[in-house]
Amino acid sequence: MPFSPEGFPTRISGKENLIAHYSAWAQISAKAHFTSLLVFYPMQDPEMVFAEWKGAVDIMPTGRNYSQTYGGLFHVENGKIKLFRKYYDPASLKALVN
């Protein structure tokens, strides 16, 4: 997440850290949908793919709706994700928490 706003991580490494980062998700979100307009863009390297999608979720503590367009670069080796680099508009995320 190289363009995360201040106060949000730009990098999460390792399965355990990823689980910890999203552990509160179930308690704060409702009506989440993150597969709208999902498009995959294969690359010359068969282990790489770029994806684009839209997401929307109701944030329960604030009552706000978070809507975002994402892009993601995936590197997959032997059926396992080795790299996932997520791109999104940091202003949308920052507006959600302010």
| Overall number of strands | 4
Under CATH, the topology can be stated as Nuclear Transport Factor 2, Chain: A
Largest sheet: spatial strand order = 1-2-3-4
**Mean residue pLDDT:** 89
- Beta-strand content estimate: over 45%
CATH class: Alpha Beta
- Structurally, the number of domains stands at 1
Reported CATH architecture: Roll
Number of helices: 3
Q: Tell me about the biggest sheet?
A: 4 strands, antiparallel
Oligomer: single chain
C-alpha end-to-end distance:
20 Å
Shape: globular
Spell the H/E element sequence: HHEEEEH
What's the gyration radius in Å? 14 Å
Structural class: alpha+beta
Poorly predicted residue ranges? none
The level of helicity is: 10-25%
Topology:
Elements: H1 15-21, H2 25-28, E1 29-42, E2 48-59, E3 64-77, E4 80-88, H3 90-97
Antiparallel strand pairs: 1-2, 2-3, 3-4
What characteristics describe this protein?
Nuclear Transport Factor 2, Chain: A; 4 strands; 98 residues; four-stranded antiparallel β-sheet; single chain; alpha+beta
Task: Provide a descriptive summary of the structure in words.
This protein is an alpha+beta fold. The protein has a single domain, classed as Nuclear Transport Factor 2, Chain: A. 19% of the residues lie in helices and 50% in strands. The protein contains three helices and four strands, in the order H-H-E-E-E-E-H. Strands 1-2-3-4 form a four-stranded antiparallel sheet. Strand 1 and strand 2 form a beta hairpin. The chain is globular, with a radius of gyration of 14 Å. The two termini are 20 Å apart.
